[in-house]
Amino acid sequence: MINKPFPKLKEPYLLACWPGMGNVALRAGTYLKNQLKAEELAELETFEVYQPAEVAVQHGLAKIPEPPRNKFYFWKNGYGKNDLIIFLSEAQPDLDKGYLYGHRVLEFVQRYEIKKVFTFAAMPVPITHLEKPKVWAVATDLFLLEELRKLDVQIMPEGQISGLNGLLLGIAKQRKISGICLLGELPLYTIQIENPRASQAVLEILTAMLGIKIDYTELENYAKRLEEEIEKLFDFFSVDIKKTKTLSEEDVHKMRKTIEEYTKIPPEAKKKIEELFEQAKKDSTKITELKVILDKWGIFKEYEDKFLDLFEKRKEQPPEK
Questions:
Q1: What fold characterizes domain 2-215?
Q2: With contact defined as beta carbons under 8 Å apart, do 269 and 290 qualify?
Q3: What is the dihedral of CA 47, 49, 53, 56, to 10 degrees?
Q4: 52 or 234: which carries more pLDDT confidence?
Q5: How many CB atoms sit inside 10 A of residue 139's CB?
Q6: Cys-Cys link to 75, which of 36, 182, 196, 219 (CB 3.0-4.6 A)?
Q7: Termini Cα distance of the chain
Q8: 79-83, 87-91, 235-239, 303-307: which has the highest mean pLDDT?
Q9: Which pLDDT band, with edges at 50, 70 and 90, does 321 fall under?
């Protein structure tokens, strides 16, 4: 842990954000940090949770790539009783290291007697990019659920929240810290590109809960630019989304393929998928992890044949003696 002298904070809350679908969480957390002009507090060293799988080469020289940055920031609330710590990470950790990593994040902030944990996530649903996204919520206790029901949010009845944006909430509960995850809706066909509308939606709920006011102009302008680009794509492919009142599976598939013509999943996710395919050929325990990440990005169909080949190859292998 690299940190500066500890500032004195008033009953702080933690907001923790990692990359995920639509970059909803990290975009929202970064935007809030910039709007509040939060100050850097510490950097979490995480060499053990990001295992390099290749070397970087520059001018013929090889070196191990630098690990992703994981930083804490703090903001002193001059109007309310709760200060804020914001944790921003550049990448999700290796799947089997996430639980340890989450505990390390909370171990650091508990020295400040943290009062509550917030995370953000995305919820893919069959809506269009022209609709205002709703916000769903999950909490660690019934008292917080009652608080959330007073706001303009839907309570998530069941399901899973993958990655650290979800896992941290469960770890917080184990450590007797209350917490909330706010999930912003995004169209099923845009999960591989940024969705600032969903980021703004979760931020509006959080700032309302904390009594914070920020300017959303920059985020709104970014959302408009992205939406204009999506409209151009649909016009080019003759998809009249404005006439679509409800989205069928065929509609979603057609629009997702349209987007995929010009967008890709993040390079680090693509690289991780290829690494897992290679690992799964030798280690069957990696197959489950591979299925999780393919489902997360909504690209299992694209890799289905290659995925099923893993089982065929294992049948062909002679039994171990």
A1: Rossmann fold (3.40.50)
A2: no
A3: -30
A4: 52
A5: 20
A6: 36
A7: 45
A8: 87-91
A9: very low
Q: How many CA atoms lie within 13 A of 242 on its CB side?
A: 5
Question: Rounded distance, CA 268 to CA 64, Å?
Answer: 16
Q: Where are the domains of the chain?
A: 2-215, 267-316
Backbone angles phi, psi at 129, to 5 degrees: -75, -5
Q: What is the mean pLDDT of the chain?
A: 85
Measured in whole angstroms, how far is the alpha carbon of residue 234 from the centre of its chain?
Answer: 26
Non-local (6+) Cβ contacts of 118 within 8 A are: 13, 14, 15, 16, 179, 180, 181, 182, 206
Phi, psi dihedrals of residue 56, rounded to the nearest 5°: -90, 140
Rg (CA), the chain: 21
Cβ contact 233:62 at 8 Å:
no
What's the burial of 90, exposed, middle or buried (CB within 10 Å: 0-12/13-18/19+)?
middle
pTM of the model: 0.76
Inter-residue contact 144 to 178 (CB < 8 Å): yes
Contact between residue 230 and residue 259 where contact means Cβ atoms under 8 Å apart: yes
Amino acid 213: pLDDT: 93
